[in-house]
Design brief:
By secondary structure, chain A is mainly α. Chain A has helices spanning about 1-30, 40-55, 60-80, 90-110, 140-160, 160-170, 175-180, 185-210, 220-230, 235-255, 265-280; strands at about 115-120, 130, 135, 210-215. In chain A, strand 2 (about 130) and strand 3 (about 135) form a beta hairpin. In chain A, helix 1 runs parallel beside helix 5 (about 140-160) and helix 6 crosses helix 8 (about 185-210). The mean pLDDT of chain A is about 90. Chain B is globular. Classes of the chains: A mainly alpha (about 290), B mainly alpha (about 400). Chains A and B meet through helix 4, helix 9 and helix 11 of A and helix 4, helix 5, helix 10, helix 12 and helix 17 of B.
């Protein structure tokens, strides 16, 4: 039954990747920019929730506040760093994104040192499911439910509201959308706000699941979430979710199979997934091949 | 070979020799102490890798975030070669370096094939992932020494070797970029769709540039291994890749001169500011963001230090007037004449001035009119003609860029 346990672990990890991947995919869909700082926004979210929580605020107040604050950070980053470069070359925008990512990592490293901090644990207060001989923590179930719920909510928002419609229009053709009277800047800000809020959600789930946060915690999950987004088909919301879960499961199963001491190689397997996807189906599992128009 | 070319080749060779002679004399006589000798070697190695990265990022326009990974491949390969082959001194080092460069190139091909076939920024993410993975792999294998890395690598890297490999790199990259292949690479950077439409095999040239860039990094890595003597998998991390990224961006995207200058500056500054080492990456990140917003082409842009630049500088310093436009390089003027003649043949240029250029539908305002060649005005403005004579294409690109 090791397989079953690893599957649950994979789903839990995958849910976190999925939430981060949703933000990646939204931002990429709208501004066609790999927001390298997205993984680091997750780190910002984790630190903010830790500090707001340990400052004595009740949980149900501290966490939403942290999510809002992270979301504002994301909007601020877009406003200060990405907006001036909207019409610049793609390379400049990418380098700026790298710069922001480095800035966040190193600023937090200097402010809070690189030693990991303990995240409060809530799992003692939560029930544990027992199936046969396996114990499944309620946290794992909660993480998966949260991720799926947020994805559904987001899909409903994008497909069911006027704002969502505007978002889809901007991602299709920014100029045409502008000519139709859509405030493109506001839509882009909104996208960053939602993406960053999802990253903060992911951060909180990460914190409660693994109980340890550090300034570089966003880097690797950031890459993996992007790979997840590509795997599912970049720009597609359910694709990001599917990619995230698949990647999480692949990672935890490889970790289980690898001999002790080589578990780090699971990262290499994830990397292999990226290469295979790019080789055989660059548009992703759920994506359709589209012809490039000039 | 015509005389002018031969003269400038000889001048360049002489320049390289003189610089070598001066530095070598200073090192030998002990004016430069061993500590600074180390710094100079490190500058040389960094300049080699930076020029290599500049080929991929500045000239091809693809972001590579895993150059430390390619260096690691080269470093470990050449170190293992010298440690195990038993060949003494340079006889062991040089094949090791070549092997390291080749293996780094092969790795780059492996990483590049999936990413470079596609449009978009996949190379950035795939090289970023590669950079992370390579240190994991180096830590996991026994023959790379695991987490302890490799020790006791003979310290074979010396000044002449680094200097001449640097010169070789400069010559190779410069000649590549001035060749037909190089123009294809630059065209891809400017606009890959237009390049493809002009019959350039975009994937092939992207691969060429990227693989050469990685090979140079591999050679640089090999030099580094035999300079420092110890290799640890942690050395070649993400931040190390970013160091080179910053050197390229800071010096100028596409400028070899800029790469050398910034490799020098950004190697010396951290040495001087050791006390603030914790803030280095923070400063780099802010530097990257500010540069991108205000001067995205880097400090030197695509400018190079050339013989003409030097000649003009000397002239200005000695107070003599710049060469008058009329006596502007005879060669350039003849090119200008030829361009104008062809333009008129094809109807781009009428006697009244250029008028409608027929491309992009943009009319020049009358005051922008270009004088017709053959007249005295044209001759005195030879420079204007070559710069603006037929650049209808560049208007087109400028507009397209704005549209994106």
């Amino acid at each position: 039954m090791l397989f079953f346990v690893q599957l649950i672990n994979g789903l839990q990890l995958g849910a976190i990747y999925a939430l981060v991947a949703l933000g990646y995919t939204m931002v990429y869909g709208i501004v066609k920019l790999i927001n390298f700082a997205h993984g680091d926004l997750m780190m910002v979210g984790a630190y903010l929730s830790l500090f707001l929580y340990s400052s004595g605020l009740p949980l149900y107040f501290a966490l939403p506040l942290a999510i809002v604050a992270t979301s504002l950070t994301g909007v601020l980053i877009e406003r200060v760093a990405y907006r001036p470069l909207r019409n610049a070359s793609r390379l400049s925008a990418l380098i700026t994104a790298i710069g922001i990512s480095l800035l966040l990592q190193n600023a937090f490293m200097i402010l809070f040192s690189s030693t990991p901090r303990r995240f409060p644990s809530v799992s003692e207060q939560l029930p544990v499911f027992v199936i046969g001989t396996n114990r499944i923590s309620f946290m794992a179930v909660l993480t998966v439910l949260f991720a799926v719920g947020l994805m559904l909510l987001l899909t409903a928002f994008v497909h069911g509201t006027r704002m969502g419609k505007a978002m889809r229009a901007v991602s299709e053709d920014m100029r045409a959308a502008q000519l139709m009277g859509i405030n493109v800047n506001r839509i882009i800000s909104l996208t960053f706000a939602i993406g960053s809020a999802l990253a903060a959600f992911a951060a909180i789930l990460y914190g409660f699941s693994f109980q340890q946060i550090d300034p570089y915690m966003g880097a690797m999950p950031g890459i993996k979430a992007f790979i997840a987004a590509v795997l599912g088909g970049i720009g597609i919301l359910p694709g990001a979710m599917l990619g995230g879960f698949l990647l999480g499961i692949i990672e935890s199963l490889t970790k289980a199979v690898m001999p002790a001491g080589y578990t780090q190689l699971a990262d290499a397997v994830v990397f292999l997934v990226l290469i295979l996807v790019l080789l055989f189906k660059p548009s992703g599992l759920l994506g359709q091949t589209t012809r490039e128009k000039v | 070979m015509d005389k002018v070319k031969l003269r400038s080749y000889l001048l360049n060779a002489l320049f390289a020799l003189v610089v070598y002679g001066i530095l070598h004399a200073l090192l030998k006589s002990g004016v430069i102490n061993p500590y600074y000798r180390g710094v100079i070697l490190l500058i040389g190695i960094n300049a080699i890798v930076t020029i290599g990265l500049n080929l991929a990022t500045g000239m091809l326009g693809e972001l590579c975030l895993g150059h430390a990974g390619f260096m690691a491949v080269g470093a470990y390969t050449s170190a293992l070669f010298t440690l195990n082959s038993g060949l003494p001194g340079l006889i062991g080092l040089i094949p090791g370096l070549i092997l390291g460069g080749l293996l780094a190139a092969a790795t780059a091909a492996l990483v590049g094939v999936p990413a470079l076939r596609l449009r978009g920024d996949y190379l950035a993410i795939i090289t970023l992932a590669f950079g992370e993975i390579i240190s994991v792999l180096l830590r996991s294998f026994a023959f790379t020494g695991g987490a302890r890395g490799l020790n006791g690598i003979p310290l074979l890297t010396n000044f002449p070797l680094v200097y001449w490999i640097l010169v070789l790199t400069i010559v190779a990259v410069y000649m590549l970029i001035r060749s037909r292949h190089g123009r294809a690479i630059l065209a891809i950077r400017e606009d890959d769709i237009a390049a493809e439409a002009s019959g350039i095999n975009v994937t092939r040239f992207k691969m060429t540039a990227f693989v050469i860039s990685a090979a140079i990094a591999g050679i640089g890595g090999g030099l580094y291994a035999h300079y420092i003597g110890i290799l640890s998998p942690n050395k070649f991390n993400y931040n190390y890749s970013i160091d080179y990224m910053v050197m390229v961006v800071f010096g100028g995207m596409g400028s070899i001169t800029g790469s050398i200058l910034s490799a020098g500056t950004l190697t010396i500054l951290p040495e001087l500011l050791r006390r603030f080492a914790d803030y280095r990456m923070l400063v780099y990140s802010v530097l990257l963001i500010i540069l991108m917003i205000f001067k995205p082409e880097g400090l030197l842009g695509q400018k190079e230090f050339s013989q003409r630049f030097a000649a003009n500088l000397i002239r200005r310093l000695t107070g003599r007037e710049e060469r008058s436009a009329a006596s502007y390089d005879r060669h350039e003027l003849s090119v200008a004449r030829e361009t104008t003649r062809r333009a008129r043949e094809r109807g781009y240029l009428t006697e009244q001035g250029p008028g409608d250029l027929g491309v992009g539908g943009r009319r020049r305002r009358p005051e922008e009119n270009i004088p017709v060649a053959g007249t005295a005005v044209a001759e005195s403005e030879g420079r204007t003609l070559t710069r603006q004579g037929l650049d209808a294409g560049s208007y087109e690109t400028a507009e397209r860029k704005g549209r994106r």
